């Protein structure tokens, strides 16, 4: 009696590998007395028999995702007539037939009965084979497949009740159905494909196994899941013209599992499904534990890969938004690596405008760098910049020691050219020329400490403005460097935010051809220099939270500020893609008098040696050396004499 071997999956049990192996070895199978049918549609060899059988026997074939993708939904009658003729052709053969299609297992009860009866009416001895995966890995793998296909998301994770399909198969096929454990087949010497084919009665020794590794890694899956929210490949039963593309290659190999939070939403259902499976098939088909992964965090390298590979003009914004919500790098870092067109940067700026003004400013800045004279970009840049400035807290720390006249000039210039909303703080390093008294008379917040050098003094300003005033942007001005034009602080704030850290482009530096690499000195296109000076420095609070303060081990004159600046560079805040040690710098609205400094050669030599010892250290620094030093430091900061 001729046999019909019906392999019905389940899904995610190496069915694609089994089908590819059967199709690839048709000649050898014929020698063994088996036919693996080739169904033809649109001049293509259909080796997954789900397509013809599910289309013919399901209730609404026009909604079958394969028919939608193949363009058969509007001509479903003709398509199914064609499939039926081919099915009848193979069933009329006096040969042993192997049919493999995982979608067959999800057909409704009455449809399976119709299929069974048709096969039996053609004189076949029917044997059904079904591989069963444990509930949790199946849930993860099926979810990954739905995401990969373009319609699944992580918002509504469900546990497919395979127990119901098992019951249905038992009811329809009775003793003719054989269930096997996918996990046990994985451990088989023959592998999953060989184990299943041997079980069917196929001699695998002369077959060439075709493995199909179609699984997607964790980060690729999660990125595509986010794109599917707004841009599914199929929408309302039709191909979505603005949907994301379809991809077959994963960019990472990390196994996709649920996070702890995601698991909690479905854990009860998983437990129930395990109970049902145990009753139907036994404990070996059930989960013993549910492995989870940590919430995803993308590296800059992986992010660029994901965006360049998986997004198009419809999905670029969604992809970038998702990446920035799940990463530790800045939008500037990402924009620097993406190399988008000016239109793409501009469009991103417009879309982020109502979502995140910080990201919006980043992308319009990159657009302006590419098209600085464009009127649309110019107006949008000014509009976004103003909204950004309205949403941040700026602090200016003026660094001084025994130069009261310079300090007074600088304070006057700051007041004349800066908004009253800006926090101003004077870091006085124990001056004996009346600086403290003058600050007190003029209600200017200032430090109260003995002379301990510029590193300690800059840390006083940083701590007060960052910790006490919660400033988003901190600008450190030495007392001989002062603003000359209104709007200077806005440019410094924008540059500090965009690049995390910005320096003063002193005329001595930018006039040297060997010191200047690129840039025009604008906030969105800073000079990229090989040299740096500390007369004015701006930093963004997020960058400062990673880098920390100037290292308190430096004392007196020299090297401390440079080491701090280089630490920003080590964290990637260099304003460019250059791998060199370079410094972003602007000179917007500032002038330096270059007053004499209190230089000590012995201190300089000691500090330079200390700096060399820190060459590979980019760790966060506190502003004090130890607990005793902490108490003394805190006593120097106004508003808190405790701790």
Automatic annotation (TrEMBL):
InterPro entries: Glyco_trans_2-like (IPR001173), Glycosyltransf_2 (IPR050834), Nucleotide-diphossugar_trans (IPR029044). One of its GO terms (molecular function) is glycosyltransferase activity. Residues 396-490 form the Glycosyltransferase 2-like domain. Its EC number is 2.4.-.-. Keywords: Glycosyltransferase, Transferase. It holds the Pfam family Glycos_transf_2. Signal peptide: none annotated. The keyword RNA-binding does not apply. PANTHER family: GLYCOSYLTRANSFERASE, GLYCOSYLTRANSFERASE 2-LIKE DOMAIN-CONTAINING PROTEIN. This is Glycosyltransferase. It comes from Vibrio sp. HB236076.
């Amino acid at each position: 009696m001729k046999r019909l071997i019906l392999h019905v999956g389940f899904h995610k049990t190496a069915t694609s590998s089994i089908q590819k192996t059967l199709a690839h070895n048709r000649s050898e199978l014929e020698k063994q007395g088996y036919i693996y049918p080739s169904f033809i549609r649109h001049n293509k060899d259909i080796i997954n028999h789900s397509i013809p059988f599910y289309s013919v026997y399901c209730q609404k074939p026009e909604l079958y995702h394969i028919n939608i993708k193949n363009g058969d939904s509007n001509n479903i009658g003709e398509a199914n007539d064609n499939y039926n003729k081919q099915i009848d052709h193979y069933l009329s053969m006096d040969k042993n037939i192997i049919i493999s299609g995982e979608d067959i297992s999800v057909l409704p009860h009455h449809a399976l009965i119709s299929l069974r009866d048709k096969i039996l009416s053609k004189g076949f001895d029917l044997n059904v084979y079904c591989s069963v995966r444990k509930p949790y890995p199946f849930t993860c793998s099926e979810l990954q497949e739905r995401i990969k296909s373009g319609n699944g998301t992580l918002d509504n994770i469900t546990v497919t009740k395979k127990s119901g399909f098992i019951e249905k198969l038992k009811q329809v096929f009775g003793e003719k159905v054989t269930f096997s454990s996918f996990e046990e087949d994985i451990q088989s010497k023959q592998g999953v494909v060989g184990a299943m084919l041997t079980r069917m009665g196929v001699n695998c020794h002369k077959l060439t196994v075709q493995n199909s590794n179609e699984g997607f890694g964790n980060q690729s899956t999660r990125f595509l899941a986010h794109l599917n929210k707004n841009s599914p490949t199929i929408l309302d039963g039709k191909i979505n013209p603005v949907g994301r593309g379809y991809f077959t290659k994963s960019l990472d190999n990390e196994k996709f599992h649920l996070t702890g939070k995601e698991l909690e939403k479905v854990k009860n259902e998983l437990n129930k499904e395990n109970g049902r499976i145990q009753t139907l098939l036994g404990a070996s088909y059930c989960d013993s534990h549910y492995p989870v992964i940590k919430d995803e965090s993308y590296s800059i390298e992986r992010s660029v890969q994901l965006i360049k590979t998986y997004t198009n003009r419809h999905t670029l914004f969604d992809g970038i938004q998702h990446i920035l919500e799940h990463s530790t790098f800045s939008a500037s870092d990402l924009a620097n690596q993406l190399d988008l067109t000016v239109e793409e940067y501009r469009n991103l700026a417009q879309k982020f405008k109502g979502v995140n003004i910080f990201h919006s400013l980043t992308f319009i800045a990159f657009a302006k760098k590419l098209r600085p004279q464009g009127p649309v970009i110019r107006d949008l840049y000014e509009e976004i910049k103003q909204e950004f400035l309205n949403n941040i807290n700026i602090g200016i720390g003026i660094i001084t020691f025994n130069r009261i006249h310079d300090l007074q000039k600088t304070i006057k210039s700051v007041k004349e050219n800066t908004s009253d909303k800006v926090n101003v703080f004077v870091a006085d390093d124990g001056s004996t020329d009346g600086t403290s008294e003058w600050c007190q008379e003029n209600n200017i917040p200032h430090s109260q400490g003995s002379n301990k050098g510029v590193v300690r003094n800059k840390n006083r300003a940083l701590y007060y403005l960052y910790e006490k005033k919660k400033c988003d942007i901190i600008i450190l001005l030495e007392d001989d460097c002062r603003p000359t034009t209104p709007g200077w602080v806005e440019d410094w704030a924008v540059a500090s935010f965009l690049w995390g850290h910005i320096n003063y482009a002193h005329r001595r530096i930018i006039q040297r051809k060997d010191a200047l690499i690129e840039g025009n000195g604008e906030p969105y296109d800073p000079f990229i220099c090989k040299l740096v000076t500390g007369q004015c420095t701006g930093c963004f609070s997020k960058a400062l939270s990673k880098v920390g303060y100037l290292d308190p081990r430096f004392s007196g004159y020299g090297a401390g500020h440079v080491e701090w600046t280089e630490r920003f560079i080590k964290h990637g805040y260099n304003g460019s893609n250059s791998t060199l040690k370079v410094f972003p710098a602007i000179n917007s609205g500032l002038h330096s008098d270059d007053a004499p400094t209190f230089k000590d050669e012995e201190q300089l030599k000691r500090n330079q040696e200390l700096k060399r010892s820190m060459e590979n250290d980019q760790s966060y620094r506190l502003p004090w050396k130890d607990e005793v030093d902490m108490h003394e430091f805190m006593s120097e900061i106004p508003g808190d004499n405790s701790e």
